[in-house]
Design a protein that fits this description.
Blueprint: H1 2-9, E1 27-32, E2 35-45, E3 51-64, E4 67-78
Antiparallel strand pairs: 1-2, 2-3, 3-4
């Protein structure tokens, strides 16, 4: 769910490379009552074609089955 949203924020989404779900540098915080905060990084090309690492944060709410809702806009920052 976060990956799709984060890719929308990138200059070149087709170049995005995310780490494995449980990799070092990725954290999933259970905030209770179905709310989760996901923090991680993605490597993607910038407007000049250079691959850079970007940190992201995504705040989700599990609303049943495989349904999720964003609680706030995802954010992304370059390192």
């Amino acid at each position: 769910m976060c990956r799709d949203h984060i890719q929308e924020l990138l200059r070149s989404p087709s170049t995005a490379s995310f780490p494995p779900f449980r990799a070092e540098g990725v954290s999933i915080i259970d905030e209770g009552k179905g709310a989760y905060q996901v923090r991680g990084y993605v490597d993607a090309q910038n407007g000049f074609g250079a691959t850079i690492r970007n940190d992201f944060r995504c705040h989700l709410l599990h609303v049943g089955a495989e349904n999720w809702r964003h609680l706030s806009p995802a954010s992304i920052t370059s390192r």
